[in-house]
Design brief:
Distance between the termini: 16 Å
Order of helices and strands: EE
Number of helices: 0
Radius of gyration: 13 Å
Strand order of the largest sheet: 1-2
Largest sheet: 2 strands, antiparallel
Number of strands: 2
Shape: flat
Helix content: under 10%
C-alpha cells in the first residue's frame, strides 16, 4: 500500500535508497551525489498499469 505522505514532491531531495546491486555489492543512491542518475519504479509484475 502506498501512503500519499511518502510521495516526494517535485524538487524534493531523493529519499535514502540502498539496495543489492547486480553482480553483488550494494547500490547506495547517496554515493551518486553530483552524478546524473535515473531511478525508475515500476508496478509489481503482472499487474495492469
Amino acid at each position: 500500500m502506498l501512503i500519499e505522505s511518502s510521495i516526494p514532491a517535485v524538487g524534493d531531495a531523493a529519499p535514502v535508497i540502498a539496495a543489492p546491486a547486480t553482480g553483488g555489492g550494494q547500490f547506495d543512491l547517496s554515493a551518486q551525489l553530483g552524478k546524473w542518475v535515473v531511478v525508475y519504479f515500476y508496478p509489481r509484475a503482472n499487474t495492469p498499469g
